[in-house]
Amino acid sequence: MKAGMVLRCVAVAVVCCTMMVGCKKGCKPRSGGLDTKVDETGATRVGDGDGGSVMAQRGDKFSGPQTRNMFQPVLFAYDSAAINPSEQFKIQLAADYLKSTAGKAVIVEGHCDERGTNEYNRTLGERRAQAVRDALVNLGVDSSNIQTKSLGEDMPVDPGHDEAAWDKNRRAEFVIVN
Questions:
Q1: Does residue 39 form part of some domain?
Q2: Which of the residues in the chain have pLDDT under 50?
Q3: Which of 21, 38, 48, 132 has the fewest Cβ atoms within 10 angstroms?
Q4: SS3 for 104-168, per residue?
């Protein structure tokens, strides 16, 4: 009986210690209890693990369930927020979808590669997101349905440290909000 109590106390202590250990640099941020699932179209849906959708704390149009990877990311040249003409079709596809689907909004996330300071990359990520936002508005998307966000270098799609990885990480992503 006493051995069982000691074993339970040790197990609780191990669990508590494990939970207190912080994530080293380079770990992916935790989702705060949310899970993501890839559906049959290849889009990633954010959920609460019980099949229900997750609503953010704000009650606006950007607080609904989010769908990622519905559209290809817009890629950028090194140290640039200029949209390459070869990337314009990606923005056009997103614009057509947003204009034809009532109740949808989009968060445009700006991303950078790991080179540069955190502060510089946050600013560059915001400039990239704004450039895509401006292009969406020019294509007829209601500006009130677009929000921008810079993640700088915090969420690389490729964790490598070479030009091939950096090419993928310099991007703007569309997060559709249902």
A1: yes
A2: 5-7, 9-58
A3: 21
A4: CEEEEEEECCCCCCHHHHHHHHHHHHHHHHHHHHHCCCCHHHEEEEEEECCCCCCCCCCHHHHHH
Torsion of CA 9, 11, 16, 18, to 10 degrees: 150
In a domain, 8, yes or no: no
Write the CATH number for 113. 3.30.1330.60
Is residue 153 assigned to a domain?
yes
pLDDT of residue 62: 83
pLDDT at position 103: 84
Look up residue 75 and give its two tokens.
Answer: 């890629």
Q: Is residue 20 part of a domain?
A: no
Q: What is the pTM of this model?
A: 0.68
